[in-house]
Amino acid sequence: GLNKSYQQNQPQHGHKISKPLIATISIIITTILFLTLTLSFTLLFHHTDSQTPLNSTDSIRSICNVTRFPDSCLTALSPSSQNLTNPNSILKLSIIASVDELTKLASSLKANSNERAFDDCKELIDDAVSRLNESVSAVSDGAQPLTDVKIKDIQTWVSAALTDQQTCVDELEEVGLSLETVEKVKKMMQKSNEYTSNSLAIVAHINNLLPIH
Can you tell me where the transmembrane regions are (predicted)? Predict the structure, then answer.
């Protein structure tokens, strides 16, 4: 009985680590992890920054994201993306893309000049091209922000060009052309319509878009 009591009262000699030591080890490990992550992010940022081209697709995409048709915007701008240095250049190229598409449309309508409705429609498209060309002339080539007056003028011209295209379609429908013919014209006009809409969105945000460095 005494031996048993003696054994129960003996201190246990296990290998225990003190709480202060555990806390110290935890702090050291946490500090090492923090420094490792910080270094990793620093190296990653430096690598990304140094490897990003002057006119990256990501930068173009960020500007196209303000438009209603971002995919069409990228399609219009990507072939010349290496030459884009600021939002003014992007706006100008977007408008020029609209002009190119409308010029093709005008040629197609002229080829069908046996229809009086096509003649009226072509006049509207010619007017749209004229307004867009005025807009191109108003956009400066440099990085200098456009004045409020210029922005308002360009918005007016581009908006009118968009209206001309819609009026063309409306007139074709009103004169009773076949649905197939009207749909064909709409399809030919799709790109120019989207490019013009995108140009209107870009000019509306032009001074909020950061230049691409």
Answer: 21-45
